[in-house]
Amino acid sequence: MFTADSSSVAFATSALLHTLTSASQFRLHDIPTMTPRILCFFTFFILYVLRAESTQPPFSCDSSNPSTKDFPFCETTLPISHRARDLVSRLTLDEKISQLVNSAPPIPRLGIPGYEWWSEALHGVANAGPGIHFNGNIKSATSFPQVILTAASFDAYQWYRIGQAIGKEARALYNAGQATGMTFWAPNINIFRDPRWGRGQETPGEDPLMTGRYAASYVKGVQGDSFEGGKIKGHLQASACCKHFTAYDLDNWKGMNRFVFDARVSMQDLADTYQPPFKSCVEQGRASGLMCAYNRVNGVPSCADFNLLSKTARAQWGFRGYITSDCDAVSIIYDDQGYARSPEDAVVDVLKAGMDVNCGSYLLKHTKVAVEQKKLSESDIDKALHNLFSVRMRLGLFNGHPEGQPFGNIGPDQVCSQEHQILALEAARNGIVLLKNSARFLPLSKYKTKSLAVIGPNANSGQMLLGNYAGPPCRFVTPLQALQSYIKQTVYHPACDTVQCSSALVDSAVDIAQGADHVVLMMGLDQTQEREELDRTDLLLPGKQQELIIAVAKAAKNPVVLVLFSGGPVDISFAKNDKNIGSILWAGYPGEGGAVALAEIIFGDHNPGGRLPMTWYPQEFVKVPMTDMRMRPETSSGYPGRTYRFYKGQSVFEFGYGISYSKYSYELTAVSQNTLYLNQSSTMHVINNFDSVRSTLISELGTEFCEQNKCRARIGVKNHGEMAGKHPVLLFARQEKHGNGRARKQLIGFQSVILGAGERAEIEFEVSPCEHLSRANEDGLLVMEEGRHFLVVEVNPEKGVSMREW
């Protein structure tokens, strides 16, 4: 919460900017307490700032400034840890406290400009945070597909390239003087645990391994590392921040909101579901930022959890960077959760836990009193500041003017470049999922189709394509416009007033459908149905959409094409089983290139290959409370479990489902090892459960054992179709024994292969038994159990999912 008080003008202005640029992040009831004079001043100041076009990037250690250039913290030959320590030692207590909030004011006497920690870049550089503005020479940035669709490509190198493009465009904005910070609060790597979650669209889906791979790939791209990692020795191109740490996947459901929710999570589920993506983000991606979440986990607020922030992230995983709160997440520890006894205690709790910077003003208001009350030592503040200034130094912001520095030559021409726009189109092409294609109805013929009817509330919307946390795109074409570029005689009717479709002009839509050779229905959701602070209460299409679809499909001359835009799953069982609906495509929120990609797929200029990164549940799943964090099923209560690894109920579509215009076959050509003896290096012991399966702790096996027993599996893949295609191959492992908390199956690897018509290729997977064939026990410890394990590759025939198993 932000109020106007005697704090610095720079901070207060930035705080008000926050409320204007991303009001959904804040609760604004304090704003009216400002006096009219203050409000008038801020209004004038903000209008001036928004109209200004600065071309000077903010930096410290100006070599032309004799009063600051000789400070040791400006000496680039010294280790960053020494430089940060020197800088912090020069600050007064008031200056130190001023730097603990996201809008850090300048320190003129040391030549340090203000810094904004909060910027967003979920699927493109965005103006959702106050650190970026598009009012200078650069007016837009490449808008890639929303993450859930990008994930459907199962292509880690593409994820890396997207991160790389975003990092480059972010640095270009900084160099152009349009960024007051280079720390970006993305990616969102929470598990898409419940299909109703409004922010599931921001995530890579429901699988921990896949989400971890996405995190590492994106982070390495943004920060300027190589795809393999290990390239960064000094400067970061930009700073990525993995969020929301941890077990955060509920926003606002049936009166329960994220500010007060206490996620009750077992040690087993933490170990094998909620934590692995963050571990990968830190250990493989080497992220320089983490964000602690609003919610409590087992009673403890995430931002006040020493075990989570300091013991796990920093000590166990080796995290080297800064930790920010989510916005207002410190204030709610006292104000909403009642966990702390006073505001000062909340400040003490988070700083001692390992949090470094507060998105909000709470630390600015209450830290000094906490020090005066001797609840907090100045050294606790120094530790946080050391982490903060170290990251700013790693970004090169204390090395003088960026010209001549690494990344200093990235100019405005790198933003919305042809290369990046092609990548956005490619990502949409590779992510769109073909869910149904009866009798090979698609692709439509560009030459035989003389007339086309395009019907639905999502047909002529450009904004819908972007999803949330999007900046102004370089360009976009609506789905209607993209289809019109193929078929000139195209008739359009929205049929619904909005996506909510509280009223539908069914008769008019039917009349139009009857007069066209083919009909494409553009339906689904948008941000009025699912977003931050808005979880869904059911899984059906809104309003009268289903009624409209059935009527139009029945009246059309030929089977219709149904296109669904959404972040979360929708129960479309009716359409799956309707013979009048020939094909179904899921297009997520496909970004600025998405409409073109969709039209290319419909008319056969691209062969779809995307596969679902989440389970599509039936409507009856809404009986399961969203607040129940358990992953594993419970037979006695009828609890069905969650995600493809544990869910025991019926699915509309399974995780990994997706068909193509081609058919593919697989064969296992070689496995370098097929037997593993666990008694080589440790003593077996028996788990005390009903099946008494012998197991050993992975920690007891040792690193050498785990490395020596890695093996390789080679799989042959053939395209039997008439079109070239990009095909993701998903490799799963499963145990012979089921139940007792074991996953039904577990994704252990994935690769995409491009094959021409009739072409065959072989791909190789590394299988690490200690990582891929282990599971978490009830204490959250990884164990390997004796018994048979199977490698599984799933094939997608049009009626269900079959498996090749070895």
TrEMBL record:
It comes from Salix udensis. GO terms for biological process: arabinan catabolic process; xylan catabolic process. It comes from the Eukaryota. SMART domains: Fn3_like. GO terms for cellular component: extracellular region; plant-type cell wall. It is found in: Secreted. This is Fibronectin type III-like domain-containing protein. Belongs to the glycosyl hydrolase 3 family.
